[in-house]
Amino acid sequence: QAGDSSMIGTAVSTGQAIVAQNVETATAFKYTPLLPDTKAELALPLRVRGRIVGALTVQSARQHAFPAESVRALQTLADQCAVAIENAKLFTQIEASLNSSNLLYQASRQLTEATSTDSIYNTIIDFVSQSELAETAYILTADRTNPTNLMTHAFWSIRPIPEYNQELRFNRKTFKFGELVSGEQVVLISGLDDTQLDEQTR
After folding, report:
1. Between vectors from CA 127 to CA 125 and to CA 129, what angle results, nearest 5°?
2. What is the 3-state secondary structure (H, E, C) of the chain?
3. Residue 1 above 60 pLDDT?
4. Looking at the predicted structure, is the pLDDT value of residue 81 above 70?
5. Could you report how far apart the first and last alpha carbons of the chain are, in Å?
6. Do residues 154 and 138 lie in contact, with contact meaning Cβ atoms separated by under 8 Å?
C-alpha cells in the first residue's frame, strides 16, 4: 500500500528503489506465504514524467541477489513499463473518446435526416443503448387520445423487463414522472431511492 512502511510502499512514496539483500534483517520486508523462499527483495517505483504510477517487486531465493548494476537495469525496465502502462491508458481514453464522438455524430446525422417522430425516438434510444450512459431508457409523451395519460413511444433496457409493452399508459396525476417532466428543465434521477420518486414509480 502506498505510503506504508513496506518496501513497495516506501518505493512508491519516495520514488526510489528499495533493496533488501537479506530479508531476514530487513524491517521493511513483508513476508508473503505465496513466496516462502524469498531471501532478497527489490522494490522499484514505476515512474513516468515525474509521477509514480505503481511499483514493481522482484524477489530472489538467494541473498545478495541484486548488485547495483542489476538494480539500475531493472529500474530502467520498470520506467519503460510505466511509460507503456500510461500509453495504454491514454490509448484507451482516446479510443473511448473517439467512439463517443462517432456515436454522437451518427445520432446527430440521423436526427437531422429523420422524417418521423418514431425515427427520432428510436435514434435517441439507440444512442443511449450504444453509449453505455444508462441501463434503461424510456421516451414518454402525452397520449394523443387522452392527454391526461403518458405513453411510452420507445424503450430500451440492459435487463429484460417482461411487463413492458408500448400499450402501457401512465396517468399524469399518479405517475411521478408526469409531474417531473411538466417543465422544460432537465431532471436527474440518481436511483430508485431518489426522494423525487414515489413508490408507484419505483
Report:
1. 70
2. CCCCCCHHHHHHHHCCCEEECCHHHCCCCCCCCCCCCCCEEEEEEEEECCEEEEEEEEEECCCCCCCHHHHHHHHHHHHHHHHHHHHHHHHHHHHHHHHHHHHHHHHHHHHHHCCCHHHHHHHHHHHHHHHCCCCEEEEEEEECCEEEEEEEEEEEECCCCCCCCCCCEEECCCCHHHHHCCCCCCCCCCCCCCCCCCCCCC
3. no
4. yes
5. 41
6. yes
Pick the closest to residue 65 from 90, 30, 41 (CA basis).
41
Letter for the amino acid at 15?
G
Angle between helices 117-131 and 68-113 (to 10 degrees): 170
Task: Please give the grid coordinates belonging to residue 14.
Answer: 519516495
Model pLDDT for residues 113-156, shown as the tens digit of each residue: 888 888 888 888 888 888 877 787 878 777 878 878 887 777 88
Q: How many CA atoms lie within 13 A of 199 on its CB side?
A: 0
- The answer to whether the CB of 21 falls within 8 A of the CB of 65 is yes
Question: pTM of the predicted model, to two decimals?
Answer: 0.49
